[in-house]
Amino acid sequence: MQKRKLTPFGLKVKNRLADMNMTQKELAKRLGTSDAYLSMILYGERAGTIYIASIKNILDIN
Fold it and tell me: What b-and-e string marks burial along 25-58, b requiring 16 or more CB atoms within 10 Å of the CB?
């Protein structure tokens, strides 16, 4: 079984979450989606187009 890898965007998000002392679950709640769906976005399994701008805004990622 192949190990999942974060996308470059997913890696940025994970690093920023650590910097802000915020969990992925907290981010998902603020976005109004599930932790599982957010995970799929970060691993490139879903596009998550409607959430990308909000993720960048919440985490102050350019």
Answer: eebbeebebeeeebbbbbeeeeebeebeeebeeb
| The predicted structure's pLDDT at residue 2 | 78
Domain ranges of the chain: 23-57
Nearest to 27 by CA among 36, 35, 15, 19: 35
Give tens-digit pLDDT for 6-46: 999 999 999 999 999 999 999 999 999 999 999 999 999 99
Could you tell me the two tokens for 18? 């650590």
Stretch (H or E) spanning 35: helix 35-42
User: Is the overall model pTM greater than 0.70, yes or no?
Assistant: yes
Instruction: Compute the radius of gyration of the chain from its Cα atoms.
Output: 11
